[in-house]
Amino acid sequence: MGFLWNYVRNLVSITALNQPRHPLLFSYYITHRCDLCCSYCSDGQGRPFKEDIVEELSTEDAKQLIKILRRSCDILDFTGGEPMLRDDLEELLSYARQIGFRTILNTKGINLPQRPELMRLSNVLVLSVDSLRAQRLAQIIQRSTDIAEKILCTLHWVVKNRHLYKTRVVLAAVAMPDNLDDVSETLDFAIKENLGFQLSPQIIGTVAHTQLRSNDRYKSLINKAMEAKASGAYVFGVFAYLRNIRDLGPGVCFPLLMPTIRPDGKVNLPCLERPEKRVDLRITGSYDRVLAVTNIDYNPANCKNRCHIFCHRALSLLQRQPLSALRELGNWSVKI
Predict the structure, then answer these.
(1) CA 314 to CA 317: how far, in whole Å?
(2) What is the pLDDT at residue 203?
(3) Could you write out the DSSP letters of every residue in 8-32?
(4) Which residues contact 266 (CB under 8 A, 6 or more apart)?
(5) pLDDT digits (tens, 9 = 90+) for 258-272
(6) Residue 299 vs residues 252, 256, 261, 274, 283: alpha-carbon distances, Å
(7) Whole-prediction pTM value?
(8) What integer is the mean pLDDT of 188-203?
(9) Residue 336: which pLDDT band, with cuts at 50, 70 and 90?
(10) How does residue 296 score in pLDDT terms, banded at 50, 70 and 90?
């Protein structure tokens, strides 16, 4: 199954007032390990991912899982933790590409220049860059300035080499009360270098940081991103999403559009932030079978105003607005 076919089927479900259940992409947390300590990192339960120690699948078991996922979708996001801590990441990305996945790699990118194959094997490389200033970035990741400088060196290496590897590059930034100027600079850099830009508010558990509400500087940042998008910059998220995270208002969430997979191969249902059930995909044999045997009956209204996480809120609004979605898809296919 592919993105467009699943998108159309989901539209039919929404028209019939049913929860859309066909995934637009899967997000595979291949490890919870991470050597950094980003101040905003949270697994939805209020703790950093690395504190949730989960056994990781072997290379062969991970390939089996990826093969199962491919039956239901054609976009696979590799994330973590820090996915680059997996020594077999190149092999897993390569296998995913071989069986027809379009791949996304979410990473801080430390030492990526020493593993350039990762860039070639990623259709989209999402670099997490919350500041372009080493000292500020060091404070955010709670590590030395030397480590922060490695992240920024990776950024400049990626910009220089993206044409060689034919990789779409997106800069992802988390807007926190104390880094709004830094995120604004990252946006400017993305526009200058013709990169994608993805913006999310800092989440505490599943709720946006209280100091972002009624924060004029935060609202100005989102307005700036919207103006840039209107002028042709590759800012991700339909305008409804950007307005939603600016005003931090309520909205309907469709979490089954992007199922999240734990390092042990279990899928979180209905989502990472509210894991009412966890089912091993390798045992059930297919994602459709997981939905059938769990009979998940998720009411998105229960979340109300709790979650403004990019991957859920942005996709939910994308699914509800077909015309905006057509324009948005251009961000992923634009020439580098």
Answers:
(1) 5
(2) 86
(3) HHHHHHHHTT----S-S-EEEE---
(4) 278, 279, 280, 281
(5) 999 999 999 998 888
(6) 10, 11, 21, 12, 26
(7) 0.94
(8) 95
(9) very low
(10) low
pLDDT exceeds 80 at position 300:
no
Q: State the Cα–Cα distance between residues 1 and 17, nearest whole angstrom.
A: 22
Q: Which of 53-62, 298-307, 315-324 has the weakest average pLDDT?
A: 298-307
pLDDT for 108 beyond 70: yes
Over its C-alpha atoms, the chain yields an Rg (Å, rounded) of 19
DSSP annotation of 231 reads T
Read off the tokens for 1.
């199954």
157/149 Cα distance (integer angstroms): 12
DSSP 237-285: S-HHHHHHHHHT------GGGS-EE-TTSEEEEE-SSSEEEEEEHHHH-
Backbone angles phi, psi at 236, to 5 degrees: -85, 150
The structural domains of the chain, ordered by start, are: 3-333 (3.20.20.70)
Q: How far apart are CA 61 and CA 283, in angstroms?
A: 11
In angstroms, the CA 150 to CA 64 distance is 34
Report residue 200 as tokens: 């999310």
Backbone φ and ψ of 283, nearest 5° = -80, -45
Other beta carbons within 10 Å of 9: 13
* Crossing angle of helices 3-15 and 310-320, rounded to 10°: 70
pLDDT tens column, 236-253: 999 999 998 999 887 778
Strand boundaries in 38-162, DSSP class E: 75-79, 102-107, 124-128
Residue type for 39, please?
S
The single residue listed with the structure tokens 């599943």 is 206
